[in-house]
Amino acid sequence: MSKVRVKQVRSAINRDKSQKATLVALGLRKLNQVVEHESTPQIEGMIKKVGHLVTVER
């Protein structure tokens, strides 16, 4: 599987509790933090849910 790099570019302040939990599940805790994951359907769903808060490099 391919790798995907996810970077948090917008704050989670005033966001829904489930969106905050999704960011934590992705391993994102601070702005401009970058994490790398395998591109699985579960990770793709998480990225889609918080797509307005992150940028993605494939």
Protein described:
This is Large ribosomal subunit protein uL30. Part of the 50S ribosomal subunit. The protein contains two helices and three strands. By secondary structure, the chain is α+β, with helices and mostly antiparallel strands. It has a single domain, classed as Ribosomal protein L30/L7 (Ribosomal Protein L30, Chain: A), CATH 3.30.1390.20. A three-stranded antiparallel β-sheet has the order 2-1-3, with no helix packed on it. Helix 1 packs across helix 2.
Mean pLDDT: 97
Overall strand count: 3
From the coordinates shown, what is the CATH architecture?
2-Layer Sandwich
**CATH classification, class level:** Alpha Beta
CATH topology descriptor: Ribosomal Protein L30, Chain: A
User: What is the 3D shape?
Assistant: globular
Q: Within the largest sheet, what's the order of strands?
A: 2-1-3
DSSP strand (E) fraction?
Answer: 25-35%
Main sheet overview: 3 strands, antiparallel
C-alpha termini separation: 11 Å
What proportion of the residues is helical, as a percent range?
25-40%
Q: How many structural units, i.e. domains?
A: 1
Rounded to an integer in angstroms, the radius of gyration calculated over CA atoms is 10 Å
Low-pLDDT windows of residues: none
The succession of helices and strands, N to C, reads: EHEHE
Name given to the CATH homologous superfamily: Ribosomal protein L30/L7
Structural class comes to alpha+beta
